[in-house]
Amino acid sequence: MFSKVLIANRGEIACRIIRACQKLGIKTVAVYSEADQDTLHVRMADEAYLLGGASPHESYLNASRIISIAQMSGAEAIHPGYGFLSQNPAFARACQSEDIRFIGPYAYVMENMGDKVKAKNLARKAGLPVLPGTDEAVADSSATAAAWELGFPLMVKAAQGGGGIGIRIINSLDELKSVMQQQRTLASRAFGSSQLYFERYMQGASHIEVQVLGDEHGNLVHLFERDCSIQRRNQKILEESPAAKLTPEQRSRLWEYALRLARRIGYTNAGTVEFLVSQEGNIYFLEMNTRLQVEHGVTEMVTGLDLVELQLRVAAGEPLPFTQSDIHARGHAIEARIYPEDPETFIPSAGIIHSFRQPAGKHIRVDSALIPGYQVSTYYESLLAKLICWGETREEARKRLSGALDMFRIEGVKCNIPALKGVVDHTSFIDGTYHTGSLSSMIADTARRDIEDEAHPLSENGRKEKELAAAIGVALMLSTNAHSELDASLQSKGASPWKTYGLREQMLSRKLGSGSWRQRASGSR
Questions:
Q1: Of the four, 70, 328, 393, 457, which is 20 to 30 A from 373 by CA?
Q2: Using 50, 70 and 90 to split pLDDT, how confident is the model at 486?
C-alpha cells in the first residue's frame, strides 16, 4: 500500500479521498489555488502546497506543477478525483514517466473511451447495441447527408466531450449549419478538438449506468446500476440505485454489457459504463466514464463497499478482495446534488457561506467541504454537497431524503434545495416513471402547485399565471439550445463554464421579464 498520496482536486471529493486515505493510514498531500487556501481539504491533509492563481489553468489543470509537488513531497501516487485532470491520458502518462502511480485506468484506455466515436465502435465490436449515429467524425461537407439519413430529432455532439457539455438537439436541417459552427467553436475551446458526430435523439429514454471495478490481476466485477435520468442540460442532479423501472432481464443485460466492454478494453480501477434505455425497453450504449463518478456514494450505500479505498488498493497492486458472487445490493439509496444557484431561476449564486446546518441521522450521508466562511466563487463549477439517503425500500429512502432536504440549511448563498425537494416529492419521481426529459415538466408542475396554494380560487389571471409559470419552467430547461452561441463566445474569451451559464440565464430572464417566475406570476416586484 502507498505511504503517501497526493490529491489533485478540491472541494468535497478531495475531502472524501483524504478520509479514505486516513482510514488506511496513508498520509495525504493537498494542492490548492489562491482562492482555496482556507478550505477544508487543505486543513484535513497532512501537507498542503500552493499550485498558483485562482483560475483552473493556473492551478488544478497545471499538470507539471502537480507532478513537481508530488515529487517534492514524496507522494507515490496521485488521485485525480473527478473533473480537472481525471480523464486526461497525457497526465496519466506523465505520472507514469515520473514513476508516480495514477489512480485510475491506463492512459490508452482513457484515450479509447474519451473519443466518443472510437468508444462507440469498440462497444459495437464487444457486442453492445449502440445508438444509431455516425461511425466517424462528421465533416461539414457530409453533414447534411448524414443528418438526413439518421433523421430527426438529432444530437450534435462533441467527439471529445463529457460532463453533459457539447451536446445540442436539433429538429430540422434548417438548424444544422449554424449549430455545427457553434458546436465546433465550443468543442474546440472546451476539449481541444472541434470534431463532432451525430446520434439519433431518443425521447423519453432513461439514463442508466453500471459501476465496474477491475484489478491488475484480471478480476472484474460490476457493482450494480444507478438511474441518473433526472438531468438539467444533460447534467445529473439526482441519482438512485437500484434503477426501480428496470425489469430483471434488463438489469442482467446491462450488467453483462458493462462487463463485456470493460473486459474488451482491459479496464482496471473504477469506471462507469453508461446506457440509454428507451421507453420500449431497448438498451443502447452511450459512453464510458473512466474515473470515479460524483454519484459513487449511492453505490457505496447499497453495497457497503468503499469505492475510494478499493481504488487505492487496486492502484497499489492488490487483487480485489471479493468475487461477483460475494457482492450484494441491499435496500435503496438516492442522492441529491446541492448546487449554489437560485432555485427558481437557476442562476448561479456566489458569496460567503456564513452558516449552515447539515442533516444528520441514521442512513443519512452528507459529502461536503462546507465550513463557516467558505467562499463560493465563480472560478469552479461549485458542488456544495451531496446528500445521500438509504432505506430498506425506495419509498423509505425517498421520504428520508425529502425530510433531510427540509433540514438542510445554507446561509450566505442561494442553493437549489427547494428545487430538489420539489422533484423528490413529485408524483413522477414517487412512482418512478420519470425519464431524461422529465425535469422541465416537474418544475412547471411545482410552479403551478405553488401558485394554486397561494391563490384560491383561480381567476382568469390566475389561469394565465399558471400557464406562464409552466412556460418559464420549460424555457429555463431549454435555455442551452437558445444560447449556445453566447456560450461559445464567452468560453472563447476564457470565461468559466459556471460564469457563462449565469450570464446565459440572466439573458433568458430578461427575455421572459424581470423577477422570478413566482414574482411574475403573482404580480409582485
A1: 70
A2: very low
Give 525's DSSP letter: -
d(CA 324, CA 287): 23
Domain for residue 454, yes or no? yes
Whether 46 and 93 share a structural domain: yes
pLDDT of residue 515 exceeding 60 = no
H or E stretch including 223?
strand 220-232
Cβ within 8 Å of residue 189, ≥6 positions away: 488, 491, 492
Contact assessment for residue 386 and residue 366, using Cβ atoms and an 8 Å cutoff: yes
pTM score > 0.70 for this model?
yes
| 3-state SS class at 425 | coil
Identify whether residues 218 and 258 lie together within a single domain: yes
Cβ-Cβ contacts under 8 Å for 350 (sequence gap 6 or more): 340, 376, 377, 378, 413
Q: How many CB atoms lie within 10 A of CB 464?
A: 12
Task: Please classify residue 323 by burial: count the beta carbons closer than 10 Å to its beta carbon, then call 0-12 exposed, 13-18 middle and 19+ buried.
Answer: exposed
Q: Which domain, by its residues, includes 395? A: 206-430
Average confidence (pLDDT) over 361-381:
92
361 and 244 belong to one structural domain = yes
Domain boundary among 177, 200, 223: 200
Q: Are residues 231 and 179 in the same domain?
A: no
Query: Are residues 171 and 290 both part of a single domain?
Result: no
Would 38 be classed as within a structural domain? yes
In a domain, 458, yes or no: yes
The verdict on residue 109 lying in a domain is: no
Q: With beta carbons less than 8 A apart as the criterion, state whether 139 and 40 touch.
A: no
Non-local CB neighbours of 340 within 8 Å, separated by 6+ positions: 348, 349, 350, 376, 382, 384, 413, 414, 415
Which of 157, 172, 200 finishes a domain?
A: 200
Please check whether residues 171 and 233 belong to one and the same domain: no
* Mean per-residue pLDDT, 499-505: 45
Say what the pLDDT of residue 81 is: 97
CB 7 within 8 A of CB 36: no
User: Both 360 and 453 in a single domain?
Assistant: no
Q: Which residues are catalytic?
A: 291
What pLDDT is stored for residue 163 in this prediction? 62
Beta bridge partners of 390: 333
- Same-domain check for residues 191 and 215: no
Q: What CATH number is attached to the domain comprising 167? A: 3.30.1490.20
Phi, psi of 336, rounded to the nearest 5 degrees: -120, 130
Length of the chain: 525
pLDDT at 521: 31
DSSP three-state, residue 3: coil
From the list 286, 290, 293, 283, the residue with the least C-alpha distance to 265 is 290
Q: Is the pLDDT of residue 484 over 80?
A: no
Q: How many domains does the chain have?
A: 4
- At 9-24, the pLDDT tens digits run 999 999 999 999 999 9
Strands 101-102 and 77-79: parallel
> How do residues 431-459 score in pLDDT, each as one tens digit?
999 999 898 888 888 777 766 666 555 55
